[in-house]
Specification:
Rossmann fold; OB fold (Dihydrolipoamide Acetyltransferase, E2P); 20 strands; binds adenosine-5'-triphosphate; translocase; transport
Length: about 350
């Protein structure tokens, strides 16, 4: 059976992890949630670093743990990327990578070459870690995890220790992994922007439990969950660049259900891109406005209305076409003034659309 089946129950003083998840066979699954929600604990259970007897873990048909057996970490074909890449200072980058290989009994050199190429570190192989920047260290740490040719890659907030500039340096490499790796990746993060850029599937964690587990667009557009994202509630749409307007430096992105103008990010016509639209940047009108500076306005149907974190606010899920959703955050007073009801056709006016890769 393809995919990852992960069921763990682990008791600690004041905290219980209790999850039963089916995760996809490939692509990036983000474990997302507040600090202390149990993301790292779950990742460590998957790695076998945390013993959870009675747990069950099957990775693409291979049983790593069940009631009868519990493979120790070194017998699980996985790569683990920690927040801080702890490299051996006395070894060159190349020897740090080879050290990881020895641990698994000399996996193929192909894995190592591929990891070096994917992370763009060929020019760093002879250096000692002391002569690497923070971003370069991170790339070496990720390459080391990949060099062993793992069947599953686990990443625990790999960007958390980096400043904004370093994050921007690493994200394109992570996006490349996302496109080119054919193994599943489980990625712990509490940063909504990272999740929006990298994840295909999200597990929303809260107090040791999975509140939701599903495809990115579906989970992000649920009105009962975005409350926990606060200001960052919003959706991600995947689309294709269908037009580039050089005169105004804009690009038109078509997604199932409509088109949006975005700032041209340099992507070629035909490229697949993601755009992120925050709920606070979407307002609603009963009819399309003509005298407005907004470029993006879409016919939508009100799908669901829910209370938001503040009593003045409501969240509204909107259906765009047959398969896409938007979220709009508005005051409850505005919702009442427009007499918004599920099934009602309205116009979504979008103040900002961020192209996220
Ligand atoms: N070694 C440990 N012994 C006992 N309790 C622990 C241990 N490690 C973590 N905890 C507790 O388990 C709970 C879950 O912690 P965990 O690190 O999994 O959360 P997290 O979602 O990864 O948080 P963060 O985003 O801050 O890393 C917390 O209540 C934490 O205090």
């Amino acid at each position: 059976m393809r995919g990852i089946q992960a069921a763990f129950r682990l008791e600690r003083a004041g905290f219980t992890l209790d999850v039963d998840l089916d995760l996809p066979a490939c692509g990036v699954t983000a474990l997302f949630g507040h600090s202390g929600s149990g993301k790292t604990t779950l990742l460590r259970c998957i790695a076998g670093l945390e013993r959870a007897p009675g747990g069950r873990l099957v990775v693409n048909g291979d049983v790593w743990q069940d009631g009868h057996q519990l493979r120790p970490t070194h017998q699980r074909p996985l790569g683990y990327v920690f927040q801080e890449a702890s490299l051996f200072d006395h070894l060159s980058v190349m020897n740090n990578l080879r050290y990881g290989l020895r641990r698994v009994g000399g996996a193929s050199a192909r894995g190592l070459d591929q990891a070096v190429e994917l992370l763009g570190i060929a020019h760093l192989l002879d250096r000692k870690p002391a002569r690497l920047s923070g971003g370069e260290r991170s790339r070496v740490g990720i390459a080391r995890a990949l060099a062993v040719g793992p069947k599953l890659l686990l990443m625990d907030e790999p960007l958390a220790a980096l400043d904004l500039a370093r994050k921007q340096e690493i994200l394109p490499y992570l996006e490349r992994l996302h496109r080119e790796l054919d193994i599943p990746v489980v990625y712990v993060s509490h940063a909504p922007d990272e999740v929006a850029r990298l994840a295909d599937h999200i597990v929303a964690m809260d107090a040791g439990r999975a509140l939701a587990s599903g495809p990115l667009a579906e989970v992000l557009s649920r009105v009962d969950l975005p409350i926990r994202l606060g200001e960052d509630a919003g959706v991600v749409l995947e689309g294709v660049v269908v037009e580039r307007d050089a005169a105004w430096s804009l690009a038109r992105v078509a997604f199932p259900g409509g088109c949006l103008w975005v700032r041209d990010g340099g992507q070629a016509q035909g490229a697949t891109v993601r755009v992120r639209i925050l709920a606070r940047d979407v307002s609603l009108a009963l009819s399309p406005a003509t005298d407005t500076s907004l470029l993006n306005s879409l016919p939508v149907v009100v799908d669901q209305l829910a209370d938001d974190s503040h009593p003045a606010l409501a969240l509204c899920r909107l259906q765009v076409g047959t398969s896409s959703s938007l979220l709009a955050r508005l005051t409850r007073r505005s919702a009442a003034a427009l007499d918004l009801q599920p099934g009602q056709a309205v116009c979504a006016q979008i103040k900002a659309v961020a192209l996220i890769g």
